[in-house]
């Protein structure tokens, strides 16, 4: 919704100094820049993008992807699929292994004219998908999940059951292709490792596709991606589409991997100083884990960033200040190493840059949107508020 | 809302086998039992209870506390205070340090006739609260936060500024009392340590109150509490009210402390098996951190329970099965030590008992309510759906 400049309701807040804290902020300038960066990469690699919308879960953020024109997307829940279908999106991949109970909602979306692709990695799933497709007289486009790095689900490309699963799906008109996700690339700490992870993700997905083709089974889609590998891939020959989600916002985990810079982080949470424990070197804020999530993704990285780094309201990093503690509605800020603990009176507003954008965004109903490219003499102006899709 | 037995909408689901997963479940029988247990303790100790509603954030769950009659409550956000005021609650303590920006909403609640007490621990806060009270012609009842264990905010009872803060508040008609919270009792691993933490919490709160009284400042409220200390306190002489929140649901952290048994846990999340990686010993479900939260509270306990323990749909523990991994919409279950990995086909529904009820509940819009005291031949029947208060 757009906020009238002089509306009188609480939603009439006009700068980051106005709404009660904590609240989530998206800098649309940074988000657009992140989106353009990966779009340019995909163009150079000659591959289509299918962004994963699970990070922002917002039709408005997704509107930045393609000039407000619906584009192919990936979703993590059927609630997202339904919300994006309502928003005019017609080419959607639901990238979580299917269970039989969810098929009625899948079929309902297909009947609405949405090409909703689903995912599986076992013959038992292929059988019930084929059966449901036959009963409905409507083939459910299905991808076989391929495991490229032992991260989660999927079949190895040499799994004995791969051709059998492909055949069950093909015979029911359901076989669409293969999908791989290099989840372990979140632990690839150098550019070289990320490039290798991207090459491996491609090689394994293409090998699985070739194995199916060698068995006489047509493979239309060869889908790969994760934010680190999407930014590292050098050659995607044989791949038809690239997926990534986190990059729309980025976060400290991605900055720790070197996939982005800290100044690229588009999501933050505005908090207020509510107290001090000077004897312990603590500044206490009203942003705890309810506002930030319990995600401590940087704990395994070379630089543990606690629950997040701290900026002023304009987004300038406060050197050495880290959110190191969180209870439900309290955050604790401390100075790293020998950094000076700044004097920040009660009432001071700060922004916290999160470890994991997907998890932090999930703690909020929506985003207060600012445009970091517009400089002002006051706190950043709130352009609008964007809502999130929630639930399953 | 009550669900008509034969309604046709998706909300007509009648047992835990019906709604799409994941979703949160509250066993109202267990919750009532937990509530009765602490109420009986408080009666024996001769102290009033002021339950903290931040765990369930639900007027319906709060209705269990006192036969659907509004009782004194503690809240963690002004959104909770406003929702409970809408529900007829008139005696509310907002137990997070105040910042000046939130005072208009505090005053609005007071003007509605709600006795909303606020919290602070500095002279600068006392000054702006006194000033706002004078300007509004409406004294804001205020408690001084006392630190009993170095856990978070608050003043030590011998802090030089304590009488000064009391005086500023008293002169403006705002001084209500003192409040302490033994947050470190979450790390008190024996009954003896918990008893000591409870005694310390009482002693320190009473000492602070006595210091204020010695300075000629009347102290009406002496408020203490945390779920572990509320269940361990042996003598609360001088205390006027006891706070606790988590006990309405309990969780694996509390079970690990011995404050409750695992069979007392009233909150769980229903998930569905969506795949297997038998070569790794993994069962994969559709319940990841979005459904469970990232909270790993038992990681510091003697028995790390991963992201949660696993039961069947009736709530019977599956021995040795633990949710050890989580991505956004995927959970990984593994067998502990030499336990047998059960054969659970795709589509099998399970329940996950959470580490931290406050954090897991926060991932859901509401609760599907069952009554574990009613045995059936089918999956537990869903009695109703209860909504949560969200946001700030």
TrEMBL record, chains A, B:
UniProt cross-references to SUPFAM superfamilies, sorted A to Z: PLP-binding barrel (SSF51419)
Magnesium keyword on record: no
CDD domains in alphabetical order: PLPDE_III_DSD_D-TA_like_1
UniProt domain D-serine dehydratase-like: residue ranges: 266-371
InterPro entries linked: Ala_racemase_N, D-amino_acid_metab_enzyme, D-ser_dehydrat-like_dom, D-ser_dehydrat-like_sf, PLP-binding_barrel
Xref: PANTHER family: D-SERINE DEHYDRATASE, ZGC:162816-RELATED
Family in the record: Belongs to the DSD1 family.
Protein name: DSD1 family PLP-dependent enzyme
